[in-house]
Amino acid sequence: MIFEELFERYPCLENCRNDIHSAFMLFNSCYDNGGKILCCGNGGSAADSDHFVGELMKGFLKKRPLSDDEKNLFEDKYIADNLQKGLPAISLCAHSALMTAFENDVAPSLVFAQQVYAYAKENDVLFCFSTSGNSENIVYAAKVAKAAGIKSVAVTGKKESRLSEICDVCIRLPETETFKVQELTLPVYHCLAAMLEENFFEI
Predict the structure, then answer these.
(1) Is there a contact between 191 and 172 (Cβ–Cβ < 8 Å)?
(2) How far apart are CA 136 and CA 122, in angstroms?
(3) Which pLDDT score, from 0 to 100, does residue 202 have?
(4) Which of 66, 102, 101 is nearest to 81 (CA)?
(5) Which of these CATH numbers, 3.90.226.10, 3.40.50.10490, 3.30.70.600, 3.40.50.10680, describes 2-200?
(6) Which of 39, 53, 38, 25 minimizes the C-alpha distance to 130?
């Protein structure tokens, strides 16, 4: 099982087991109910945000081909044969024109909060990546998520933080140095992506 394999490969994550599973359950409920995942982070965590979205929006460990009925929607066989089913997700780090405009014209620390406010719909989940758990723009995004009535998940280092107080689930990885937290972040979200894919796609 994908979930158990994570702890076999990374025994240091055992204390995070319940929180990782809770994050999966929130994401699973999100997709069961037609929601999407909004992701944000800074620096390396922004790369993690983009990376996680990439694993959700196209085939990860599975091909996710369209059904025959779905393929019949397209006259072009190339389109029908190559499109893949996706799990809706948006990286809030990926909109450079919007981000720089808002940072320049309005309030830099609210650059992710603005997007959460505009995007958030019922059953969505915000996924926050922050090695410290205290990044101001991520904290504001989590606050707006709560005000908007959507759930939030954070991946942070092991210390208690503002995100661990605000978010519905906080996966506190057993490291404090930034690069070491990031090294453990990757297998966690790969596990979550694989579990979601396994649950929603047969092939």
Answers:
(1) no
(2) 25
(3) 82
(4) 66
(5) 3.40.50.10490
(6) 39
Write down the pTM of the prediction. 0.96
Q: From the CB of residue 146, how many other CB atoms can be counted at a distance below 10 Å?
A: 16
- Rounded-to-integer distance, Cα 145 and Cα 16, Å: 23
Q: Which two tokens stand for residue 65?
A: 């081909």
Give dist(CA 201, CA 21) in Å, integer.
19
Q: CA 168 to CA 84: how far, in whole Å?
A: 31
Q: Give the integer Cα–Cα distance in Å for 131 and 145.
A: 19
Longest CA–CA separation in the chain, Å:
54
Between CA 23 and CA 38 the distance in angstroms is: 14
88-103: b (≥16 Cβ within 10 Å) or e: ebbbbbeeeeebeebe
CA nearest neighbour of 156 among 129, 180, 186, 137? 129
Q: What contacts 196, CB < 8 A, 6 or more positions away?
A: 24, 27, 28, 31, 56, 87
pLDDT tens track, the chain, 203 positions: 899 999 999 999 999 999 999 999 999 999 999 999 999 999 999 999 999 999 999 999 999 999 999 999 999 999 999 999 999 999 999 999 999 999 999 999 999 999 999 999 999 999 999 999 999 999 999 999 999 999 999 999 999 999 999 999 999 999 999 999 999 999 999 999 999 999 999 86
